[in-house]
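Task: sequence design from structure.
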């Protein structure tokens, strides 16, 4: 009986042994955290040790990349200034911005105020503008020579702007009768002379009708209709007789909205009654913007 009671000691009332509670498990988490902190401090300490020589090489390469002049430091020389070989100067944003601004202005061919000048125009853009201007000017010369051979010298006016070559047909009695959109016999010859020079071009052609400020008294209600019809008749002649591809051409009428000359003189009224054939330049906008400046730059 006594032996049975002795074997029963150490058990709970339910007959199961009590589980021993481990109160030192927090040491594992604590040691892990301390290990991570020690590793972090080691990394921070290693990062704080900068190799001055390598840093100087990096600074020099960055300065050269941004166009800043390279500076050579003589470390063995003796002078009146204290030793500053260990001091490192890094280019600031104020040093970098002017260099980048000049590069951007040169690439765009524009100054800060938006005006192109010979000093800031990129060489490649200027060369492209000169080549395009030469091509358009050569086209105008060949057309003028063809008209001269037919006794029509001076029948057309040529000018080059940022859009391309503008061939002006002043709509006096040579091209159209008063307040009429019917092409005269002379104007048909002129348009037929133009066509062979326009057909081979890859450029798009815009035929634009214009009028002066004098109200029309013909069948056309306004100068919009008159200018549009005149442009359309010129375009039809180019396409139907001259074989100009219709997909490359368009006709539009501006009425009196875009006068070339003041409408307060007889010359201005006559000059604003016109049809312009515009050979649109296919060059990028930055090249086209330089076209009007080419003659000035060539003179300079």
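Answer:
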């Amino acid at each position: 009986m006594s032996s049975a009671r002795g074997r029963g000691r150490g058990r709970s009332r339910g007959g199961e042994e009590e589980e021993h509670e481990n109160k030192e498990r927090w040491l594992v988490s604590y040691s892990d955290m301390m290990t991570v902190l020690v590793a972090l401090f080691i990394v921070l300490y290693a990062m704080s040790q900068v190799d001055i020589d390598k840093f100087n090489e990096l600074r020099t390469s960055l300065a050269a990349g941004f166009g800043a002049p390279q500076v050579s430091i003589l470390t063995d020389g003796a002078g009146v200034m204290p030793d500053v070989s260990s001091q490192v100067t890094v280019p600031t944003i104020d040093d970098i911005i002017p260099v980048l601004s000049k590069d951007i202005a040169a690439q765009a061919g524009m100054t800060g105020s938006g005006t192109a000048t010979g000093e800031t125009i990129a060489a490649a853009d200027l060369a492209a503008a000169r080549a395009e201007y030469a091509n358009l000017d050569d086209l105008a010369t060949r057309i003028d020579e063809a008209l001269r051979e037919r006794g029509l010298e001076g029948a057309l006016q040529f000018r080059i702007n940022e859009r391309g070559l503008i061939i002006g047909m002043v709509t006096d009695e040579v091209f159209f009768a008063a307040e009429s959109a019917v092409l005269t016999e002379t104007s048909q010859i002129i348009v037929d002379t133009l066509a062979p020079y326009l057909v081979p071009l890859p450029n798009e052609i815009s035929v634009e009708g214009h009028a002066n400020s004098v109200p029309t008294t013909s069948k056309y209600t306004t100068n919009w209709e008159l200018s549009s019809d005149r442009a359309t008749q010129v375009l039809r002649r180019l396409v139907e007789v001259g074989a100009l591809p219709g997909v490359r051409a368009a006709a539009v009428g501006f009425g009196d909205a875009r006068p070339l000359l003041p409408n307060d003189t007889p010359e201005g009224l006559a000059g604003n009654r016109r049809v312009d054939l515009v050979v649109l330049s296919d060059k990028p906008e930055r090249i086209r913007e330089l076209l009007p400046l080419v003659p000035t730059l060539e003179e300079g």
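The chain has ten helices and five strands.
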